[in-house]
Amino acid sequence: MRIPAHSVCTAIRDDIVAGVYERGGRLTEEVLARRYGVSRVPVREALRTLEAEGFVVTRRHAGACVAEPTEQEAADLLEMRMLLEPLGAARAAQRRTEAHLKVLRGLVRLGQERARSGSSEDLRSLGGWFHETLAQAAGSPSLTAMLTQLRHKIAWMYAVQAPPSPVDHWAEHGAIVDAVARGDGERARAVTALHTERATTAHRLRFSGGGERVRTSQHAVNMSGLRH
Predict the structure, then answer these.
(1) Which of 20, 74, 99, 161 could in theory staple to 202 by disulfide, Cβ–Cβ 3.0 to 4.6 A?
(2) What is the pTM of this model?
């Protein structure tokens, strides 16, 4: 049975985000095909998609390699998210379905329970599901795809510290859902903008400091110790 290219693409992307492949490292079709148990055809298609998304670059004499983002490129992603997530929330207030609301409310309820009890181990994954569902509720496949790609790339480039007050963090999620449920686009936009701005302060570049060298121009330099 032929494994679809999008499944291979997801697997490679997840491994890039997880640090399995270091920045600047080569991605050969033969090795990847062997690792994921597929032919080279879906791997080739996956690499083209990942190049379009910015996770992979093609270099002369080297072929496909993991991209090496600059600090400015990483900072731009956070700025883009601060613009797009409030837009997504405003759209969700107008286009969400009852199914979206049910999932969002369930996630908020679970997140608030975990935050109050001090069980923080799964709060990050719950937060990811919350924002993914909120993006889907916007009813715009292109906007949802952009927000999903942003989340993947930010997770790749940044380590995120736990919020100082998980209870307050999830209260903000609850306020977003309340605005979305009321169909109040402007309120949803404003609350999400504040929430995203606060969350951004917890992000720390994975590839800065600690003796690691960061690409600050269009020329790649050696980087080491990047497996996470």
Answers:
(1) 161
(2) 0.81
